[in-house]
Amino acid sequence: MIKDIKGLHHVTSMAADANTNNQFFTNTLGLRRVKKTVNFDAPEVYHLYYGDELGTPGSVMTYFPFGTMPKGRRGAGEVGVTEFAVPEGSLPFWTERLSSKGVAGLAQDTAFGETRLSFEGPDGDGFALVESDAQGRTAWTSGNVSEDAGIFGFRGARFRLRDADATGELLTYMGYQKAEHEGDITRYVIEGGNAADTIDLEQVGNAAPAADQGAGSVHHIAFAVEDRAAQLRVREALMQTGYQVTPVIDRDYFWAIYFRTPGGVLFEIATNEPGFDRDEDTAHLGEALKLPTRYEPHRDKIEALLPPIAA
């Protein structure tokens, strides 16, 4: 069994309009934009990162806004809901706030003893705010949401799968433990890591597959390891089990490896090092456009292709 995984690192999704995406996460949800860079494989497309003050692993939601991209088709084989942790008793504030801003899909329920507020992002993304203990985390409070309601980071994520058992076996191998079961949903929890420590697997039987990824679709979900040595141990363990894992890829702010799971979800294992302050002062994270080294000679051309983003 793998012992190096520390919970979630980040979740990466796709979006249509960059400004709409930025305003939703920085204004509506009150997160900090911690990095403004570009897609490594398509530098004419932004890669935007949102999180807490430092972009702490376990707090970071990232997006590729592809402009006029059509919405994705939801279904089985995807991350259906990304869950953020908020302070106990804060959901009335969030219900009023999201309703006043016209956010769609608002619905409150309880799962595994936790009160949740589900809602949709601008592109139909599935989200939930979950009342949770801070577990030592601090919300980004220089935005427009107060400390007593601010988002701490992720609580976890919910997958929608035709066969939850196969992914459950993988999670168990990755160090997660089966915790509880409610209806068609089974919860897995990892101990000794960061507070973004839950994965819920929803069995959806014969649901149509999420075959057409687009705006609002989760591209991949990343799990955290401390450093590159731990990442190599995880990679070796996965490959010995038969998974096809990519070589290590330098993503500037972390190193990454990727593999496809039995249920179809793309997993990444990302290092906690070096972090988002490697090329910007903490006070100014996410302000300037940062380019991968190989694209720096083409900065003028790339900037001309990218739409301006309001602060």
Structure description:
By secondary structure, the chain is α+β, with helices and mostly antiparallel strands. The protein has one domain (8-225, 250-305): Roll (2,3-Dihydroxybiphenyl 1,2-Dioxygenase, domain 1). It contains 5 helices and 16 strands. It has helices at residues 18-28, 91-100, 164-173, 228-240, 299-305; strands at residues 8-15, 32-39, 42-51, 60-65, 78-86, 107-111, 114-120, 126-131, 153-161, 177-182, 185-189, 198-203, 218-225, 249-250, 254-260, 266-274. A hairpin with a 2-residue loop joins strand 2 and strand 3. The protein is globular, with a radius of gyration of 18 Å. The mean pLDDT is 96.
Topology of this protein?
Blueprint: E1 8-15, H1 18-28, E2 32-39, E3 42-51, E4 60-65, E5 78-86, H2 91-100, E6 107-111, E7 114-120, E8 126-131, E9 153-161, H3 164-173, E10 177-182, E11 185-189, E12 198-203, E13 218-225, H4 228-240, E14 249-250, E15 254-260, E16 266-274, H5 299-305
Parallel strand pairs: 1-4, 5-8, 9-12, 13-16
Antiparallel strand pairs: 1-13, 2-3, 3-4, 5-9, 6-7, 7-8, 10-11, 11-12, 14-15, 15-16
